[in-house]
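[09:14] KT: can someone run the structure on this one? pasting the chain below
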Amino acid sequence: MKDDRIREECGVFGLFSNSEKSVSEDIYYGLIALQHRGQESAGISVTDREGNMGNSITHKGMGLVSEVFDAELLGRLKGNIGLGHVRYSTTGESVISNAQPIAMNYIKGSLALAHNGNIINAAELKKAQMLRGLAHFGTTDSEVIAYEIIFDRVNTGSIEEAVKKTAGKIRGGYALLVMSPRKLVAIRDPLGIKPLVLGKRGDDFILASESAAITSIGGKLIRDVRPGEIICISSDGIKSDLSLCGENHAHCIFEYIYFARCDSVMDGVEVHEARVRAGRALARSAPVDADLVAGVPDSGIAAAEGYSMESGIRFGHIFHKNSYIGRSFIKPTDRERKIAVHMKLNVLRDAVNNKRIVLIDDSIVRGNTMRQIIEALKNAGAREVHVRISSPPFLHPCFYGTDVPGSGELIASDHSGKEVCEAIGADSLCHLHLEDFKTVVPGHRFCCACFDGNYPVK
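[09:31] RB: done, structure tokens below
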């Protein structure tokens, strides 16, 4: 019995400082703000603007950001340019050798790379690297990209040219930060599947997966990096190359549904407001008579607020969430997982006793966790539990860096809505229609492949 949450692969954070202050502490806090995007490993690489190879330092380890770094270690990571990474693995094992950033030395210098996403032609590129007779070649997607950039850098005039040449070969969804001894380079995939934003704090430039990481260190969001855009930051300032940008976009729809922090802004839309709108749309398409609307913490709260606003049914909190349960509580057996659910969420009995409840969550993957939550609510005296999901049913896997499992593990892929409802023990079950969700963030084009099977990159 597996964990019943969808998880993002990772988050990236980069900082180019024009002051003499070391950037490692700010990167640490930026990664803390991105911790929700990956909890398996964390890492930071720094260098200085003088390009001294001896001052290029990388440290990474398994665990949460606060477990990998302490004040003494951050004090040793001295540099004016840096990048950081938090990881949850979708390809490659969860081991230290796969942690990022990836740091490499080569004939023309050095680079460090932090990557969010998946490259669907990584095997093809790896084969080409082997045929070139390279002593080393990539095993993970990120290593494949790093070796490709190094190969191209040897034959080009600058690191940004090498990144551009490599970008012409790779296919998939990605947000990529590359640090050379004197520059910080960023690129977002041409469809914009993976998020990447640009910010500023004084004279310093910041790049991150989400705006919340920029504001967490006192920075200000400037804008989203355009799909296909290459940004190069050096002591000469910031340069933008739009030559790989196209008209077709396909931003990951699940960023708005679940991945991103509520206080992040993506494409000019505050994520919290998008989720409230999703709840409103769900109330219009799937009304029900009830006494109370509640959300599964934390992912269902904003949509539950929206459902309550639109329906007029009172919103309330019905769970106490224990925020101090770590990753060790993701257990492999059914018994241990049931204990984990009860350790994380306890029902407020007086709030639910003899109530008809509308329970809002962002998704149902395998159905295990939702079934246990409904059982706990009914054991606490709830008369009815009507489940409303603020996204369409998951029917297909994701190949672009999100941990949506194969169709055989998705309960909605081979069960009808009625069968899923019975399996989780709900009194009724409705999902938000895909067309309704698109009205939540109007004017944007999304990758909805996990819902409709239309993959934008093949």
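[09:33] KT: thanks! Residues 271-285 form the longest helix (15 residues).
[09:34] RB: yep, looked fine to me
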